Structures are given as C-alpha cells and as structure tokens.
Amino acid sequence: SAYRLCIMRKLPSVLARTLTSGTSASPGLPDMFEVRSKLRDIVGASTNWRDHVQAMQERKALHNLLAKRQEDLPPRRMKDSYLEVILPLGSQPEIREKYLNVHNSVRFGRILEDLDSLGVLICYTHTKQEMQPRSPLSIVTALVDKINLCQKIIHPDCDIKFTGNVSWVGKTSMEVKMHMLQLHDGDYSPVLDATFVMVARDPENRRPAFVNPLIPESPEEEEIFKQGELNKLKRIEFNTASLLKMAPTAEERNIVHDIFLNTLDTRQEGKGTVSFQSRKLPPNSVWMEDAKLKGLQICHPEERNIFNRIFGGFLMRKAFELGWALACSYGGSRPFIVSVDDIMFQKPVEVGSLLLLSGQVCYTEKNYIQIRVHSEVYNANTREHHTTNVFHFTFISENEVPQVVPKTYGGKYPIKSMLYLDGKRHFTAVMKEI
C-alpha cells in the first residue's frame, strides 16, 4: 500500500520525544487562528483592505534593520524554531464545518492552507530578533518540495496537531519540515509529512534578504541538515534534466514511440493509406486531450496574505480541488491524495487578478492518477497571460483507471507526449519516496 507509517526517526530526537509524548488534546497549544493573527502582528499587516497601502508604506522604515551579511546574524538551533499547533476539530465542533467535505472527512485543501501559514510562522520564529516586535523580513513560500500522506482518511471529529521546525538554511532560504498527527484513542498518530522551502526578502518583498544560519546540535540533526542539502541538489538536478531544457532519454523516446505504434490504425494498411494521422484509441484508454478540466477564480481581497498578495495556501487549495475533481471524473470513483510535489511559486498573484486553472491527467498506472494543474493570471487591461504556478498531484482511485494516452508525432501532439513523460517522472519520484 502507498499508505505507510510516516517515518519519525528522521526528526531530531528532542523533537521526536515531544511528538510521541502527551496524549491529550493539548489545550494550551496555539490554534490556526492564533497562527494567522501572530503573522499579521509580526509583519504589521492591516486587517482592513482599505488600509493595506498605508501598512505596506510603514514597512519601508524597517529596511535599516536588515543584516548586511549573514555572519552578522546570531545562529539558531532546530529547536529554536520548533512549533506545535492544534487544530481542535474534536474539542471545538464549531470549527468543523470549514474543514468538512461531503464524504465526512477533512478537506485536504484546507490542510494545505494551514501548512502554508505554519511554514511561514516557523521561519519567522527562526529569524526572530529580540527587542524587535516587527520583522523586517518578508517571508514567502518558494516551493512545496513534497507532501507525503500515510493515511487515506483524515477524520473531521478528532483533534489534529501540526508540528514543525526549520531543517536547513541557505543564505536567504530555509527548508521547513512539518508533520501532521491526529488524535485517536488518546494517542497522536502520523497523517502526513511535508517539506516546504521559504525565501526571505526585504520589507517591501523586492530583493533577497539574509537569514540566521542554522547550527545542528546532534548526529540526528546533522543528518537532517545534510538531507536538506541533498534535497537542494536533487531539485537542481531535476530542473537541469527538465524536458523544457533537455531532450527525453533514449528510454523515454522508446516509450513515446511504442505508444505511437500501439495507436496506429492498422485497418488502413490494406488501403495503403496508413499515415501519422491514422490513429485509434487502444481498449480501456483515454486520449490526453480528453482528460482535462479548467476553472476560473476571481481573486478577492478576502484571500490576501499578510503582504496583500493572494495567499499561497488559497492557490494550493483551489488547484488541489480542481485536480481532485478531475481525478474523480476521470477514474469514476472517489480519489484519495497520495502525494503533492514540486509546486514552484513562480510569480505572485495580485488581488483582483483573474486566475485560470488548467488540470491535465498526465500519467496513469493501475489505480494511480498523476495530475498537473497549470495556474496563470490574466490581465484584462493588457490581455497578457502569466504562469504563476505548476502543481503536481498523485491520487489513488478506488478502482483501476483507464490508461491515459498522448497523441504523438504531429501538429500540437508532441506537447502531450512531453506532459506524459513529465507526469511519469513525477510519479516515479513519488513512488520511490513512499
């Protein structure tokens, strides 16, 4: 099964002990409302949309608090940024409605929003300077490296605990590891592990800014820090080998050619009219061009973050829900999320934007559906489109799903072949993880 127990040994021992101890709902812990409130205080964000310009103007004065060099900032330990946050679905039934889906389980899109907020607060905790109530840093999500789940169902009536800390630091970026656990029979059991990468920028969110270095304190922490370095190198390697930069491998070219041969309409052979355009769909298959779903969002002020751009968690939730709907309609049964990976935040989304979401089934294998959601903003004044995000979701369906097939060799169809190969690469990487 894809759903295995999350491996807790990767945590620093001091943090692992904290996680496994304590079986109550921990009523003293902050909740998600407090997380978002704290973030507004740290940045000095306005709660009124009409005041947001003034609030951002006031942040300009914080420029002189920025460090000129990373060496000028005091080092931090992993436990300095460690946070535990409660989502009291069991002990406070009044908040359940926001998290509830029609299947009587928790909406995963809401969890994505919570992880995004918590990741930012963890980084502000790492970079906190004593005697400075407001941070000069603008910390934003650069990348969701991976989120792997080990439970199919998240129950809507049991308390959830999020934990996390900074696990690796570069000059201006921080890797954050977060874990989600749910209370069952008096014990918290693992639900998911998440790795985010955050970047620090100046008070106006224009240029990179230095962050405090991280000092591992034990062999376990050394291992975690080393893993953060490896993750960075893997991302560079994956991007370098991207199909946007390099041709497919020989093995991948063979895969595409085999698909082409398997979809040739051999009934035309006797008539001497076999061509690249004579195609037929194999049994129990769907053309990629017929496995798509699109959506549109108007980005209202309600969805803004502390920097008055559209909240990254909201974008993730909307992309996930479109991906889930596509997986549901494609597979013909309820899909479950297995993994989220490689979500790059390429461009911020301004309040008032028209957000266009395009979902595509890219690859299938047995019960698995690999979906790519492309997000772009449309400017009605300039009539320009700009990509903001590309999301990758791996779902598992209750039943085996049809094979998705790209049309290849001609016209616009090589694009579908590249999407197919990219989807296969993401799926293979996810399967190695779980």
Automatic annotation (TrEMBL):
Gene Ontology terms, MF aspect: carboxylic ester hydrolase activity; fatty acyl-CoA hydrolase activity
Listed InterPro entries: HOTDOG_ACOT, HotDog_dom_sf, Thioestr_dom
Swiss-Prot/TrEMBL keywords: Hydrolase, Mitochondrion, Repeat, Serine esterase, Transit peptide
Pfam families, A to Z: 4HBT
Annotated organism of origin: Callaeas wilsoni
Gene name of this polypeptide: Acot9
Main location: mitochondrion
SUPFAM superfamilies assigned: Thioesterase/thiol ester dehydrase-isomerase (SSF54637)
A single GO BP: acyl-CoA metabolic process
Protein name stated in the entry: ACOT9 thioesterase
Gene3D superfamilies: Hotdog Thioesterase
Positions of the HotDog ACOT-type domain: 81-204, 289-401
Subcellular locations according to the entry: Mitochondrion
Domain of life: Eukaryota
Family annotation (CDD domains): BFIT_BACH
Any one GO CC term of the record: mitochondrion
Assigned protein family: Belongs to the acyl coenzyme A hydrolase family.
